[in-house]
Design goal:
The complex is a heterodimer of chains A (378) and B (120).
Chain A lengths: L1 E2 L2 E8 L4 E2 L2 H6 E9 L7 E8 L5 H10 L6 E8 L2 E16 L7 E9 L19 H10 L6 E5 L21 H11 L3 E6 L6 E6 L8 E5 L10 E6 L5 E8 L6 E5 L11 E3 L5 E5 L7 H12 L6 E8 H4 L8 E5 L7 E13 L2 E10 L2 E3 L7
Parallel strand pairs in A: 9-11, 12-19, 14-17
Antiparallel strand pairs in A: 1-2, 2-3, 2-6, 4-5, 4-20, 5-8, 6-7, 7-8, 10-11, 13-18, 14-15, 16-22, 18-21, 19-20, 20-21
Chain B lengths: L30 E6 L2 E6 L12 E6 L6 H9 L5 H7 L5 H6 L4 E5 L11
Antiparallel strand pairs in B: 1-2, 3-4
Helix pairs in contact in B: 1-2
Classes of the chains: A mainly beta (378), B alpha+beta (120).
Chain lengths: 378, 120
């Protein structure tokens, strides 16, 4: 799948993925990868093959992938210019075949999820974690997946909680993925699987949804020759803003004081200068039993996801943009007018590769109108 | 001035404000401090050039008359500042070596560490 300076590398194999042989790439007609930063969602991919009669491909994906090794791993990497970018590191979950008729070839479609799909396979209910704080429990759970090149990146929880094994031994409930997600939402964190930086390796991130970092090259709308997006539509929903309220328990008087907190924190900086007045109030009840600083930090972490009132959806051509737009990072927007220019957080990206074209559909979010920066970095 | 070390160690570049952009050959290399004439000078540590065999080949490019490493990189990779990728893949320690012989068949490759089937 070579088109100009974009090159696709497909690696498939049980547990250890290896580059696919030539005949597999010749049959490949389309690749779709959905990568998302939304908490509680998984990234997914879809490969489409056109088959001749008697092709070996169904053998590769159905017989070998379905039964003998329980896991068929698929890594999709694109190289734009000379920068490699791993789009997804996942496993095959299902296949479908539409037989050809009247001279049209059969179409084999292979669906899959990122490596978190593996973490859903076995129910680990009852696994004890004696005297382990939350971050150490997360690391213990993730250690099993080191064989698949999963590197854990765990940010210790704000609330120190090392249970005394004489009083309480925490046990796992549900599958690994469900348990990791439950621990994450209790700390106001997210658990996501980030592919890369090299093919075969990936990062399992358990920590706060950090909307910080170096912004990617700006998306230019309606800027004549500088335009690098095909379309971009903005929407502003003032009703979506909520005011998080935490409870602080005063130990002497036993009074419970509700404290509204702003949804701005060091990890969730205001990307828009003009933020709507919240229309709804959201109580975060589990903060009553914590100290003041911990309650405020937990409230800030929990509320950071609820503040996105501006959404932008659009599509771009990677050849025109010059590089792959990555999710879970910031990107600048120029040329959309005073209200919508500025930095955005890339929430999800759908990569669509066909022979000779590579387009991306993306969703950007932020928490207010009007840029906070005087100049958007190019 | 401190004597140069074989494997200099130093501070890693912070991911928030890297000293070099991601497309630079010095991206990710640790930084170190040295004392020069009584001043503290920050310098980037030694970069080891990878073996050319570690790059999976895509195609060949015969060098034409008048081509330079930057024009080659612009034509093949879309970025003239990435000429050092071509140097790495062809074992050229000096960029001018790349285009000094007209007709030399240069290897255009995938980046280091990306495996590839031959002519896929």
């Amino acid at each position: 799948m070579l088109s100009g300076s974009v090159h696709l590398t497909l690696l498939v194999g049980p547990a250890v993925p290896v580059p696919v042989p030539r005949f597999v790439l010749d049959a490949l007609t389309g690749v779709t990868v959905h990568s998302t930063a939304e908490p509680g969602k998984q990234s997914a991919f879809e490969l489409t093959f056109e088959l001749e009669k008697g092709s070996l491909l169904p053998t590769v994906f159905l017989l070998v992938g379905g039964s003998l090794p329980p896991v068929l791993r698929v890594v999709i990497t694109v190289t734009v210019g000379s920068m490699p970018e791993v789009l997804i590191d996942g496993v095959m979950t299902s296949t479908s075949l539409a037989p050809g008729a009247n001279g049209t070839p059969s179409v084999l479609t292979v669906h899959g999820m990122d490596l978190t799909a593996l973490m859903e396979k076995i129910d680990g209910t009852g696994t004890p974690f004696p005297a382990l704080p939350v971050a150490a429990r997360v690391l213990t759970v993730l250690a099993k997946y080191a064989a698949f090149g999963v590197i854990p990146a765990v940010v210790p929880s704000l609330v120190p909680d090392t249970p005394n094994p004489l009083e309480r031994v925490p046990v796992q409930r549900g599958t690994d993925l469900a348990y990791l997600r439950r621990l994450a939402s209790r700390s106001g964190y997210v658990f996501t699987h980030i592919p890369g930086p090299v093919p075969g390796a990936s990062i399992a991130y358990w920590g706060p949804q950090a909307k910080i970092g170096l912004p990617q090259p700006a998306l230019n709308v309606d800027l004549d020759v500088q335009t690098n997006v095909e379309s971009l539509n903005f929407s502003y929903d003032a009703e979506a803003a909520t005011l998080p309220v935490i409870f602080i328990h005063h130990p002497e008087t036993k009074a419970i004081i509700p404290v509204p907190i702003p949804d701005v924190s060091p990890l969730n900086p205001p990307l828009g200068a003009l933020q709507p007045i919240p229309h709804r109030i959201r109580y975060i009840r589990e903060t009553a039993k914590l100290g003041i600083a911990e309650a405020v930090l937990l409230g800030m972490a929990k509320s950071s996801s609820a503040a996105d009132v501006v959404t932008a959806q659009g599509s771009l051509d990677v050849q025109r943009y010059g590089q792959v737009l990555r999710p879970r990072a910031l990107v600048g927007v120029r040329g959309a007018g005073t209200a919508f220019d500025g930095l955005y957080f890339v929430q999800s990206v759908d990569h669509q590769l066909k022979r000779g074209s590579f387009t991306q559909q993306f969703t950007l979010v932020r928490n207010g109108l009007v840029s906070t920066l005087p100049v958007v970095p190019v | 001035m401190t004597s140069p070390q074989l494997f200099p160690s130093g501070l890693p570049q912070s991911p928030e404000s890297p000293a070099f952009p991601a497309t630079s050959r010095y991206a990710g290399l640790p930084l170190a401090m040295a004392e020069l004439d009584g001043r503290q000078v920050r310098y980037v540590t030694r970069r080891f050039v990878p073996q050319p065999e570690r790059f999976a080949m895509l195609r060949e490019h015969p060098v034409a008359e008048g081509e330079r490493p930057d024009t080659l990189a612009a034509a093949e990779l879309g970025d003239p500042e990435r000429f050092w990728v071509l140097c790495d893949a062809n074992g050229a320690l000096h960029p001018a070596e790349l285009t000094s012989i007209v007709g030399r068949r240069l290897r255009i490759t995938l980046p280091e560490g990306v495996p590839g089937a031959a002519d896929a």
